[in-house]
């Protein structure tokens, strides 16, 4: 470990390079990967139902409210990336601002969120894989294979392995896959939205609601608990844009490009979400019967139920869109945990083997495989423990995202505290925006954590009278503390550094 004085400026730029492929991702490619990671087709299919169940017809309002802290936090991320372009993002930035202990836990929140979503993505991919096969062959029995636990888990492992193989081969292989799959799912989503509005206009929709101004009023939600639950879910809907920042060491313009890509990704997604959510809400309503969003039987997979009635014989395209969306995101999402673990291994926060770079593909090979294995094991266990694994992991994921986004945003405030008041622009971008975004997300995290102790929270699954969502969320954070203490015993040097005034240590 390097524990001496800070290196000279020209040395700093090389001491923290990790061997990743430089200049392999441009602005367009970065935005495509960001959209792919968010996976709009998969995300909306799995989250529209639970969010509507929490807030009813105020679904558009909650999506917009969830967008606000995302945008505020993205502004802070952009400033941190300009000052410290590093693939470790949350880990590196929070360690510099608050020290190694908080930085380690912030990165654990990111890793927990990505592991949760990797398992969830694989689960959605399995569902739509067998649904698509059933639609193609005309044999409805094939769609029921997803309910067979051994078959489901085996198929899930195959998807994860394929995604890990592509990620292992580096960014060039990643980009080729993503361009095709992202464009396809966006076109199908817009087709679905147009068809749903067509049914509403023609009087053939299930509910046929007219868009009302009150749908956009977040203060119409009955309780703050419901509001916090809805926002936590909507945060999950937007989550994933920060993957473009983990690519900063591989971007063509590492200091400013990733920040612009993050903002552009969020704006594209919020426009798409408004169109699709309004279409679904107008078509289905929030009732509990048949195709209503309040029907628990369709909430875990809204598009599986609505594609046929809305798109008719072209419903197969939606199945393929969600399948491709979840498969593409499964692959692109591995970018974030792999590069976070790479940075943690590089700086000594994890064993040095996590810092290994493949010489042929210039990718974090060991960390990629580790992320795939952990996600696979987690999914297999959760599929046995909870019949509603998708709903529970989505809700838990929202909690994890609120935690690590909130901590990272406040790290921006603290890191730039001495220069934030020099100009009005610095005040807005380095202090006010990240401060508000960070506080909002941490408030939602605390409220959702408290509410999730109720056994009826989420899908209603519980262990020992405590809600499964709470056990997953808080349990994963406690596990992070245990793992951190184990790592402290193995390599105490990392945790003894004074990151506020010195450069991050680098393994020699």
UniProtKB/TrEMBL annotation:
Predominant localisation class: membrane
Source organism superkingdom: Bacteria
Basic and acidic residues bias locations: 9-20
Annotated TM spans: 25-45, 57-77, 108-131, 151-168, 180-201, 221-241, 262-283, 303-323, 363-382, 394-416, 428-446, 466-488
Molecular function terms from GO: transmembrane transporter activity
Subcellular locations according to the entry: Cell membrane
Membrane topology designation: Multi-pass membrane protein
Keyword entries, A-Z: Cell membrane, Membrane, Transmembrane, Transmembrane helix
Disordered, as annotated region: 1-21
Gene Ontology CC: plasma membrane
Pfam family, one: AA_permease_2
PANTHER family: AMINO ACID TRANSPORTER-RELATED, MEMBRANE PROTEIN
Protein's recorded name: Amino acid transporter
Organism (species): Kocuria turfanensis
